[in-house]
Design brief:
This protein is mostly helical. It is built from 20 helices and no strands. Helix content is 77%, strand content 0%. The longest helix has 21 residues.
Length: 312
């Protein structure tokens, strides 16, 4: 079963198009035009077959994605996200995910008013449909304007629900989407208010295999007051210190960034971080981490010193 878009195993056409490749493309075009007509069918079985074939064609290569979009499939696939047939819905959302690998298609999918129907799939779809809806929202959120539109359309609460209760794959897709959305400032409050922090702290258990994703979102949320309060309330400080000590290079960097936000804004957090034994791993990180990690670790150590000096 196809999991995530990949061009790695597809031979690329590097020469200028020959008559043979043009013939291939016109063959694909004729096939796609037939399938697009079938998307309009009244018959469930016909729609199911057409969405399934488009899903597979969109998986295979960039040329197919362009042809499918040019033949007018996107708006029809978006309409089918509200299909009552679970298989049609799942095929349609997966086809849109595959199509969205192409940047022009990202814009076309958003312009086809796909965001609210994708939220409908997040709320009602099969486990795989939910995963692929979250992954499509992530893909669309690469475009700056879409970060705001997705946040304002009510996507965050169902993404947080998936983060807490989805399949392992669904949780990863939700975390990835929430990370991108959290880059846009006004979404941070929405993500905190939807209850994401508790789930993110739970997902920092190494057994979940999601430490880096979870800590990256927390580092963004720690830049607002509500985020810092929620991290503290959810027991996030001990796990962040643990990531500084035992995490990957990227994990250590983001954990140190989150802790710096917490400590710079609260003496209480500062004391908690010190009580967790953060100084030795921060000293190690200030000497051997990534440039950003070194900078954050050094700033944290300076913060401890200045707060200590301030108490006389």
């Amino acid at each position: 079963m196809w999991r995530r878009p990949s061009e790695r195993f597809v031979p690329r056409i590097v020469s200028s198009p020959t008559s043979e490749t043009r013939a291939d493309l016109s063959g694909v075009e004729a096939q796609v035009q037939r399938l697009v007509e079938n998307l309009k069918s009244e018959t469930v079985e016909t729609q199911r077959e057409a969405t399934s074939e488009l899903r597979l064609l969109a998986k295979h290569n960039m040329d197919n994605r362009i042809v499918i979009a040019n033949c007018g499939a996107i708006s029809l696939l978006v309409n089918l996200l509200r299909s009552e047939d679970a298989k049609i819905q799942e095929n349609a959302v997966t086809a849109l995910l595959n199509l969205s690998i192409n940047d022009n298609n990202k814009t076309a999918i958003a312009n086809a008013q796909a965001i609210e129907p994708l939220i409908h799939v997040l709320q009602t779809g099969s486990p795989e449909a939910k995963e692929n809806s979250a992954a499509t929202l992530f893909s669309l959120s690469v475009i700056e304007d879409n970060k705001a539109a997705i946040g304002r359309s009510g996507a965050i609460a169902p993404l947080v629900e998936l983060l807490g209760n989805g399949t392992p794959r669904g949780k990863k897709d939700a975390a990835t989407a929430l990370f991108n959305l959290s880059i846009f400032h006004e979404n941070k409050t929405r993500i905190v208010q939807a209850g994401a922090v508790r789930h993110l702290v739970e997902l920092m258990d190494p057994a979940a295999g999601m430490v880096d994703k979870a800590v990256a979102v927390l580092a963004n949320l720690a830049t607002i007051t509500e985020g810092r309060h929620a991290i503290d309330q959810a027991g996030g400080i001990p796990v962040l210190v643990e990531v500084v000590e035992l995490g990957s290079a990227r994990g250590k960097e983001n954990a140190a960034a989150a802790l710096l936000q917490l400590c710079s804004n609260s003496s209480r957090s500062c004391i908690k971080v010190l009580q967790e034994g953060a100084v030795p791993p921060l000293v190690a990180l200030s000497q051997s981490g990534t440039p950003r990690a070194k900078e954050k670790a050094q700033a944290l150590l300076n913060c401890f010193r200045s707060r200590h000096a301030g108490r006389g």
